Amino acid sequence: MSDVIDLSSAILQQLQSLARSGVRDLPTPQPQTEKAMARGSVAPTELTLPRDDRRIALQVVRDEVSQCTRCHDLVCSRTQTVFGVGNVQPRLCFFGEAPGADEDAQGEPFVGRAGQLLNKIIAACKLTRDEVYILNAIKCRPENNRTPTDAEIDNCWEYARRQLEILQPEFICCLGAVAARALLKRKDSIGRMRQKFFDYEQSRVIVTYHPAYLLREPSAKKDVWDDMQMLMKAMGVSV
Ligand code: URA
């Protein structure tokens, strides 16, 4: 009996949270194309939030982010906030650090040099940028691309948490230490966290090196490829 009460209370909390994010309808089964399912880019589950509800809910959070003034220094250094981009019903999310100069100018994550490398990593996994969702732990560009402070990571976490709650990805790939710190609340080195699966809510999470690190340290590309192969195997995608 207490299991039933726990479950009802968990479902109620989830529904209340989605309602706060702007979701107005209950989930209905979505048609899935066989090709996308075979490529592994679409979740096989039938019980998912409808795409339109996700778009609406994400827009609510995006609007809040665009008005955010929680971090004085970031408000001063940003041109605009950078929310997220991609498939609103993704199996896989890439979770980065913070926008750089190109992202700050264009309002989209991972569009600069690190983004081009991320595109290659996504392509090597036989996926496209449109099939995954890409977001950052921090929505504003830190001045001179400095590492975000712990306070900034904590201030911004609510937004990524709500994005992920709406997106419900099966898998999340943390790119670098800031992403892992925000999502998993861990401060271990990437070397210690990679090649393992962690749990975040209903998602399985891996941690790997940030593409910007690979630009400075190309020898680490092999490690990232090993990490992506581990991820693809878990996703049932042959690479
Ligand atoms: N690095 C990140 O972590 N995110 C971006 O959007 C661009 C570079």
Would you write up a description of this structure?
The structure is a single chain. The protein is of the alpha/beta class. It has eleven helices and six strands. The protein has a six-stranded mixed β-sheet with strand order 1-3-2-4-6-5, with helices on both faces. Strand 5 and strand 6 form a beta hairpin. Helix 3 runs antiparallel to helix 7 and helix 7 packs across helix 8. The longest helix is centred in the first third of the chain and has 19 residues. The relative contact order is 0.14. The chain binds uracil. Uracil (URA) binds next to helix 6.
Strand order of the largest sheet: 1-3-2-4-6-5
Mean pLDDT across every amino acid position = 88
Biggest sheet details: 6 strands, mixed
How big a fraction of the residues is strand?
5-15%
Considering DSSP H and I runs of 4 or more, what fraction of the residues is helical?
A: 40-55%
Bound molecules: uracil
Radius of gyration: 18 Å
Short synopsis of the structure:
The protein is an alpha/beta fold. Helix content is 49%, strand content 11%.
Features of this protein?
single chain; 239 residues; alpha/beta; 6 strands; globular; binds uracil
